[in-house]
Amino acid sequence: MSLRKIVHIDMDAFYASVEQRDDPKLRGRPVVVAWKGKRSVVCAASYEARRFGVRSAMAAIHAERLCPDAIFVPPDFTRYRAVSHAVREIFQRHTDLIEPLSLDEAYLDVTENKAGLPTATRVAVTIREQILQELQLTASAGVAPNKFLAKIASDWRKPNGLFVIQPTEVEGFLAPLPVGRIPGVGKVTEKKLEQLGIRTVGDLREHELEALENSFGRYGIRLHGLARGLDHSPVVPNRPTQSISAEDTFEYDVTLAETEPMIRRLAEKTWIASRKESRIARTVVLKLKTSEFNILTRSHTPESPPSSCEELTTIALSLRERVDMGSRQRFRLVGVGLNNFYAPDDTPDQSTLFE
């Protein structure tokens, strides 16, 4: 199989950068895009705010403590979508093989490019220049033989950076990286890998496929390939979103009643993520995992799609009332999700409205 040429473009602090671009008073200032309030979470933070430790998905009240001088700006997703569309039009000058991940990032397959540029690196340079000149925004880019490597590369010299991983450099580049740099390896998986003596991608590469599969199931097979820089997944244009969710594992198992604060926080994270989509979700899903690792899901499709974070939260909390396992049951994970997406100009199938 011939090597692909993949570019991953990631807009820098996208929402906050749009706000700073459009309001000169915000430039050079610590900007936090979020609704203020005890239960709100950060949608985005400018790099000036990040120096104080402010990060996306952090509780807004915590961000305010870290950076008392931060300027809080409520998100304007309509405007962000319009800018994202303009960025997408720049991508389309170079390739039709574009796989958006959200409003602010996408994979591009430029194995062949429309502009006839000689290398994938030249394509990435040109795209970044066009975004800066036409939209007054910066983007970081990663260039590599596959999606997995390109995504890591785009984060390597953020903000406003470009990093290229040549096919001959893959093994040496990956070996010293902490396993936490692998997309999909969260804190829980990272801790489990560490218990197996695996701290770096090089350590991971030394483990047999069978051992990883025994410990992590199908994901162990994926880890075995990624440790070797292997990722055969193609860039899929216009892949429709099937679901959006946020979940978290507790440090210690909790009762059902104790899950409310986490459900509220995850509902807001899910709501913020859903605002990046052009399509609308109709179904709310609550996921719970018991201390015995049994997974429960409860879902509800209201007559009208959730129209606010508060409505999504209310539905998610109401789904908890449909879990009847006794007061002694403990849970180790909770998640809140949205699925059953449709385009705004489509008429939803009425038969699914009353699940």
Give a quick rundown of the structure.
With 355 residues, the chain is an alpha+beta fold. The chain folds into four domains: 6-13 and 78-169, Reverse transcriptase/Diguanylate cyclase domain (Alpha-Beta Plaits, 2-Layer Sandwich); 14-76, 3-Layer(aba) Sandwich (MutS, DNA mismatch repair protein, domain I); 175-226, 5' to 3' exonuclease, C-terminal subdomain (DNA polymerase, domain 1); 243-352, Dna Ligase, domain 1 (2-Layer Sandwich), CATH 3.30.1490.100. It has helices spanning 14-22, 47-50, 60-66, 77-92, 120-135, 147-154, 170-174, 187-195, 201-205, 209-216, 218-226, 260-274, 309-320; strands at residues 6-11, 31-33, 44-45, 71-73, 98-102, 105-109, 139-144, 162-164, 243-254, 280-290, 295-300, 331-342.
By DSSP, the count of extended strands is 12
The ordered string of helix (H) and strand (E) elements is: EHEEHHEHEEHEHEHHHHHEHEEHE
- Report how far the terminal alpha carbons are from each other: 46 Å
Q: What would the principal axes of the Cα set say about the shape?
A: globular
Structural class: alpha+beta
- Can you give the mean pLDDT? 89
Corresponding CATH superfamily of the largest domain: DNA polymerase, Y-family, little finger domain
Instruction: Report Rg.
Output: 21 Å
**Poorly predicted parts:** 347-355
Beta content: 15-25%
Range of helix content: 25-40%
